[in-house]
Design brief:
Layout: H1 7-10, H2 12-25, H3 32-46, H4 49-61, H5 66-71, E1 83-84, E2 95-96
Antiparallel strand pairs: 1-2
Helix pairs in contact: 3-4
Length: 118
Protein backbone atom coordinates (compact mmCIF):
# COMPACT_ATOMS: atom_id res chain seq x y z
CA UNK A 1 0.00 0.00 0.00
CA UNK A 2 1.35 3.38 -0.95
CA UNK A 3 0.74 6.35 1.33
CA UNK A 4 -1.62 8.95 -0.08
CA UNK A 5 0.26 11.77 1.55
CA UNK A 6 3.73 12.34 2.95
CA UNK A 7 2.85 14.04 6.24
CA UNK A 8 6.46 14.94 7.02
CA UNK A 9 6.76 16.85 3.76
CA UNK A 10 3.23 18.25 3.57
CA UNK A 11 2.90 19.48 7.11
CA UNK A 12 6.06 19.34 9.21
CA UNK A 13 4.47 21.53 11.89
CA UNK A 14 1.58 19.08 12.30
CA UNK A 15 4.02 16.18 12.67
CA UNK A 16 6.01 18.12 15.27
CA UNK A 17 2.77 18.78 17.18
CA UNK A 18 1.79 15.10 17.04
CA UNK A 19 5.21 14.03 18.28
CA UNK A 20 5.05 16.59 21.10
CA UNK A 21 1.58 15.33 22.05
CA UNK A 22 2.84 11.74 22.06
CA UNK A 23 5.75 12.71 24.29
CA UNK A 24 3.36 14.49 26.65
CA UNK A 25 1.14 11.41 26.96
CA UNK A 26 4.13 9.43 28.13
CA UNK A 27 4.27 11.73 31.18
CA UNK A 28 0.61 11.29 32.21
CA UNK A 29 1.28 8.53 34.69
CA UNK A 30 -0.65 5.85 32.82
CA UNK A 31 0.86 2.40 32.94
CA UNK A 32 2.79 1.66 29.74
CA UNK A 33 0.63 -1.36 28.73
CA UNK A 34 -2.52 0.73 29.17
CA UNK A 35 -1.09 3.64 27.21
CA UNK A 36 -0.20 1.23 24.41
CA UNK A 37 -3.90 0.28 24.20
CA UNK A 38 -5.10 3.89 24.32
CA UNK A 39 -3.20 4.76 21.16
CA UNK A 40 -4.78 2.21 18.80
CA UNK A 41 -8.20 2.95 20.34
CA UNK A 42 -7.81 6.67 19.62
CA UNK A 43 -6.75 5.81 16.07
CA UNK A 44 -9.83 3.58 15.66
CA UNK A 45 -12.08 6.41 16.83
CA UNK A 46 -10.38 8.84 14.46
CA UNK A 47 -10.53 6.40 11.55
CA UNK A 48 -6.79 6.40 10.89
CA UNK A 49 -5.91 3.06 9.33
CA UNK A 50 -2.17 3.72 9.19
CA UNK A 51 -2.09 4.73 12.86
CA UNK A 52 -4.31 1.82 13.96
CA UNK A 53 -1.85 -0.57 12.34
CA UNK A 54 1.22 1.20 13.73
CA UNK A 55 -0.10 1.47 17.29
CA UNK A 56 -1.44 -2.10 17.30
CA UNK A 57 2.02 -3.34 16.31
CA UNK A 58 3.58 -1.21 19.08
CA UNK A 59 1.06 -2.57 21.60
CA UNK A 60 1.95 -6.14 20.63
CA UNK A 61 5.65 -5.39 21.05
CA UNK A 62 4.81 -3.90 24.46
CA UNK A 63 3.15 -7.13 25.58
CA UNK A 64 -0.53 -6.50 24.81
CA UNK A 65 -2.37 -9.74 24.23
CA UNK A 66 -4.26 -10.26 21.00
CA UNK A 67 -7.44 -10.74 23.02
CA UNK A 68 -7.17 -7.32 24.69
CA UNK A 69 -6.06 -5.64 21.49
CA UNK A 70 -9.04 -6.97 19.51
CA UNK A 71 -11.49 -6.20 22.31
CA UNK A 72 -10.32 -2.62 22.87
CA UNK A 73 -13.12 -1.50 20.54
CA UNK A 74 -15.71 -2.72 23.06
CA UNK A 75 -13.64 -2.45 26.24
CA UNK A 76 -16.63 -1.55 28.45
CA UNK A 77 -18.31 -4.85 27.60
CA UNK A 78 -15.37 -7.14 28.29
CA UNK A 79 -14.56 -8.96 31.52
CA UNK A 80 -10.81 -8.48 31.21
CA UNK A 81 -10.65 -4.69 31.45
CA UNK A 82 -11.15 -4.25 35.16
CA UNK A 83 -11.67 -1.29 37.49
CA UNK A 84 -8.55 -0.11 39.25
CA UNK A 85 -7.99 1.70 42.49
CA UNK A 86 -7.36 5.43 42.42
CA UNK A 87 -3.71 6.34 42.52
CA UNK A 88 -1.43 9.29 42.22
CA UNK A 89 -2.55 11.83 39.60
CA UNK A 90 -5.96 10.17 39.23
CA UNK A 91 -9.44 11.17 40.27
CA UNK A 92 -10.83 10.00 43.61
CA UNK A 93 -13.19 7.49 42.09
CA UNK A 94 -12.07 4.22 40.54
CA UNK A 95 -11.46 4.27 36.84
CA UNK A 96 -11.37 1.33 34.48
CA UNK A 97 -7.99 0.02 33.44
CA UNK A 98 -8.90 0.43 29.80
CA UNK A 99 -8.48 3.09 27.17
CA UNK A 100 -10.22 6.28 28.32
CA UNK A 101 -10.32 7.79 24.85
CA UNK A 102 -14.03 7.34 24.27
CA UNK A 103 -14.89 10.36 26.39
CA UNK A 104 -12.08 12.52 25.04
CA UNK A 105 -12.04 11.57 21.38
CA UNK A 106 -10.97 13.92 18.65
CA UNK A 107 -13.24 12.84 15.84
CA UNK A 108 -15.96 14.14 13.57
CA UNK A 109 -18.96 15.92 15.12
CA UNK A 110 -21.37 13.15 14.08
CA UNK A 111 -19.49 10.54 16.10
CA UNK A 112 -20.29 11.83 19.57
CA UNK A 113 -23.31 13.32 21.30
CA UNK A 114 -24.18 16.80 20.10
CA UNK A 115 -24.13 18.07 23.69
CA UNK A 116 -20.38 17.43 23.77
CA UNK A 117 -19.87 19.95 20.93
CA UNK A 118 -21.85 22.87 22.34
Amino acid sequence: MEPRLDFYETSPDAIKAMLAFSAATEKLGLEKPLLELVKPRASQINGGAFCVDMHAADARKGGATERRLYAVVAWRETPFFTPRSPGRNRSRRSRPAAPPTTSTRLSAPGSRPRSRWT
